[in-house]
C-alpha cells in the first residue's frame, strides 16, 4: 500500500521533506505561495518573500530593509514616522519640512504632540498661556485682547465691567443706565422686578420703573375712570381745580357729552355741560 501524497496545492510537486506554507488549511510550496500571495514592496517593487518580514502601512507593503525615510533614508523600523503625499518620513525630516513652529518658543511642534491653533498661529499646548496668570489655557475657553490671550477668569478680573447690581463681571449683553453698567437680566423695575432692557421705562429718585409701576405709584388718577393718568404713554388729560381727567373721560355727568374744548358748569363735584347745567 502506497504512502499518502502531500503535494503543493497549486503545482502538485511533493512537499515531503520541503518547506511549505499553510494558508486557510491549504498547503503551498514557498515558490507558489510567493507567486500567488506575496505582496510587492513599495520601494523595490520585488515580492516580499516568505523569508522576509512584511511591513505594512495603509495597505502598502515594504521589505524590512526597504522601510526607510524617503528623505534621509534612515530605517523607520520600530521608529515613529509621519506620512506626507504618500511618502514616509522620519519625525525629524517631517518636522523640518512640514511641521509648524510654536509662536511662543519658536521651536518645532513635533508630529503627534498636542498643540493649539488659533487664527493661523500654533503653540505647544504647554506654551499657550494666559497672559495674566501664566497658566496653560489647554482646552478651556479664552479671550484674545491686544495680541494676548486670557483665560475667562483673568479677563473678567482685569478688563470686564462689573454689574452695579450683582457685582459680577459683564462679558456679553450689558446695558448702561446713568453711566453705570448692568447685566441685561439685572436691569429691572424697582417695583415689579420686570426686565427693562429693550422696554420703555422711566425713573424717579434715580430708580428705574416700568411704566405700569410708575403710573400706579406716582401718576395722578382720573376722576372719571379712576385709572392713572400718565403722559409717558402719550396720553392727553384735562386739569381743573386740582382734579384731572383723561381727555376721553372729561364728559358731562348728566348726558355724557364730551366737554373737551367746550364750556361747562360745576355742581358740587359734578361737571355738567351748559345745557344740563341750565336744566338744574
Automatic annotation (TrEMBL):
Cited CDD domains: LIM1_FHL, LIM3_FHL, LIM4_FHL
Stored Pfam families: LIM, LIM_FHL2-3_N
GO CC terms in record: nucleus; Z disc
Annotated GO MF terms: transcription coregulator activity; zinc ion binding
Keyword terms of this UniProt record: LIM domain, Metal-binding, Nucleus, Repeat, Zinc, Zinc-finger
Membrane keyword on record: no
Residues covered by the LIM zinc-binding domain: 39-99, 100-161, 220-280
PROSITE patterns per the UniProt record, alphabetical: LIM_DOMAIN_1, LIM_DOMAIN_2
Annotated InterPro entries: LIM_FHL1/2/3/5_N, Znf_LIM
Protein's cellular compartments: Nucleus
Source superkingdom: Eukaryota
Gene3D superfamilies the UniProt entry points to: Cysteine Rich Protein
Protein name: Four and a half LIM domains protein 2
The species this protein was found in: Triplophysa tibetana
Amino acid at each position: 500500500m502506497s504512502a499518502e501524497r502531500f503535494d503543493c496545492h497549486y503545482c502538485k510537486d511533493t512537499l515531503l521533506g520541503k518547506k511549505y506554507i499553510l494558508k486557510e488549511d491549504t498547503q503551498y510550496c514557498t515558490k507558489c505561495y510567493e507567486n500567488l500571495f506575496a505582496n510587492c514592496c513599495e520601494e523595490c517593487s520585488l515580492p516580499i518573500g516568505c523569508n522576509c518580514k512584511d511591513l505594512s502601512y495603509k495597505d502598502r507593503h515594504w521589505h524590512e530593509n526597504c522601510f526607510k525615510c524617503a528623505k534621509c533614508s534612515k530605517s523607520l523600523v520600530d521608529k515613529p514616522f509621519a506620512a506626507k503625499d504618500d511618502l514616509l518620513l522620519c519625525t525629524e525630516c517631517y518636522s523640518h519640512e512640514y511641521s509648524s513652529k510654536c509662536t511662543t518658543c519658536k521651536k518645532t511642534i513635533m508630529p503627534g504632540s498636542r498643540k493649539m491653533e488659533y487664527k493661523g498661529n500654533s503653540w505647544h499646548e504647554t506654551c499657550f498661556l494666559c497672559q495674566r496668570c501664566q497658566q496653560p489655557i489647554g482646552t478651556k475657553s479664552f479671550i484674545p485682547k491686544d495680541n494676548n490671550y486670557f483665560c475667562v477668569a483673568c479677563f473678567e478680573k482685569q478688563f470686564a465691567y462689573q454689574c452695579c447690581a450683582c457685582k459680577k463681571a459683564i462679558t456679553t449683553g450689558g446695558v448702561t443706565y446713568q453711566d453705570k453698567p448692568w447685566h441685561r437680566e439685572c436691569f429691572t423695575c424697582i417695583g415689579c422686578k420686570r426686565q427693562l432692557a429693550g422696554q420703555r421705562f422711566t425713573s424717579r429718585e434715580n430708580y428705574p420703573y416700568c411704566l405700569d409701576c410708575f403710573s400706579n405709584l406716582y401718576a395722578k388718577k382720573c376722576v372719571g375712570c379712576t385709572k392713572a393718568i400718565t403722559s409717558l404713554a402719550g396720553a392727553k388729560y384735562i386739569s381743573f381745580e386740582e382734579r384731572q381727567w383723561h381727555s376721553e373721560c372729561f364728559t358731562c355727568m348728566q348726558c355724557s357729552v364730551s366737554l373737551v374744548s367746550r364750556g361747562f358748569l360745576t355742581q358740587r363735584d359734578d361737571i355738567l355741560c351748559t345745557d344740563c347745567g341750565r336744566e338744574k
